[in-house]
Amino acid sequence: MKYRSASRITELIPIHTTLKPNSLGSESWCCAFSPDESYFAWSSGNTVVTLMPWSFCKQTLPGLGKHEVEDCFGCNTISINTCITVRSMAFGLSTLNYSKCSPHPFWCRFSSSKDLILATGHSNGRIRVWDVFTGKLILELLDHKDMVSCLAFNPTGNLVLTSTSFDGTLKIWDLHDDGNMFQTLKMTNKSIYSCCWSPDAKSLVSVGMCKLVYVWDMKTFKVKFKLQGHCHDVVACAFSPDGCLIVSASWDTRVILWDSYSGQMLKIFGHLQPSPHLIFASGDNGTWIRDVSFSSDGAHIATVADDGYLRFWDIASEENPEAIATIENSLCCKYAPSGHILAVGSRSGSVTFWNAPACIKSLAYLSRICIRKAVSAENVPQLAIPKCLVKYLLYEELE
C-alpha cells in the first residue's frame, strides 16, 4: 500500500557536544514544548539541555538546513550543562494566584503570576528545576532511587509535578510548597516508564514494565482501571485534549486507543502487517514503539518506532497511517501545542521538526471536542439530545 510522505521542516543539531553521533550519552531521550508554546527544550546529549525561544524559532525554521542551525540560534538559545544524563523533562506554568487563596502571606520560590519553569529527570534519580529565562538551578528534588523516566505537570497550572522512575514508584510533588513530595504510588514494583495527566487533572495514566495500563483517580489516589490488551511492556501514554481517549504504545508493535471513562478498547494501530503472532510480538520484534503523542485537535496521533519510521495516524480512519517518514534511531516525539508541528528526538542528539497532517474537521467533530471538555461521560446520557448524538459524544463510532 502506498502512503503519503510526511514533510520534514528541518533538523537541529546539538550546539555543544564532545560525543560522536549515536554513541552512548549522545541521545536525545526527551523533548518538550512549553504549554504557552513560548519555548522548546530537548536533551541534546552529553548531559546538556538546550532551550530555545519557540516563538522566534518557528518562524525561522522552514528556511534552515541542519548545518545552519548553530549559527542562527546560537545567540538565542540557553544551553544548560546538568552534568548528569537527562532522561525526562517537562515545562511547568504557574497560573494560580496563591496569595489570594491564603489570608496569611507566605514565602515561595516561585511567583504566583505565570512563572515558567523546566523540570529535568536524571539517570541518578534526581529531579532538577530550572529558571527557563536564565538557565539557573532553582530546586532539586531527592527521593527516587533510580532513573527518573518521565515527568508531567498538572495541567491546571498549580505546579504539581508527577514523576515516574525505574525504582518502581510514581511520586507527586508540590513545587509551590518548596517541592514537598506528598504522595507515592506503586504499580507492580517494576520500572515505570511514563505517565500523563488528564486535561481536567482528575485522572492520571501510568505505564511500565508490565502489560497493563494503570488509570488512577487523583482525588483518592486509587486505581480506577487496569487496562488489558498489550502483550509486551507498555512504554508511552497520552490523553486526548478533551480527556475522553487514552492512547498507549507498547513494544508489542501496537498502539491501543481506549475509552477513558469505561476503559473499553476502541482501536488498535498495528505497526507490523500482517499482525505478528503473540510469541513474536512479545519478544525482540524489531518494531518496538518508542513514543506516542496526541495532536491538539484530538484527531491524530504520531508514533516513532525502532523500524525507522515516523507514522501519523488519523484515529477515525482505517488502521493504516495517514502519512509516514523515514527517520532512524528515533526515541521521542512531541506535538507542539498548536498541533501544526511535531518534534522528534534521536540517538544522535539532534531533533527534527515535521509538518503534521491537518484537515478541516466537521462542525459535529469540533462541537464534540468543546462539549466533552465541559461535560463528563457519565453526564452525556442525561443531555436532551437524540440517542445518535449521545453515541457520537461517547466516541462509540470508533468501536
From TrEMBL:
The record places domain SOCS box at 362-399
Task: Set out the biological process GO terms recorded for this chain's protein.
Answer: intracellular signal transduction; protein polyubiquitination
Q: Which domain of life is it from?
A: Eukaryota
Statement: the UniProt record of this protein carries the keyword Ion transport: no
* Full protein name: SOCS box domain-containing protein
Record PROSITE patterns: SOCS, WD_REPEATS_1, WD_REPEATS_2, WD_REPEATS_REGION
Note the Gene3D superfamilies from the entry: YVTN repeat-like/Quinoprotein amine dehydrogenase (2.130.10.10)
Q: Which parts of the chain are WD repeats?
A: 118-140, 141-183, 227-268, 289-323
- Per the UniProt record, one Pfam family is SOCS_box
Which UniProt keyword terms apply here?
Answer: Repeat, Ubl conjugation pathway, WD repeat
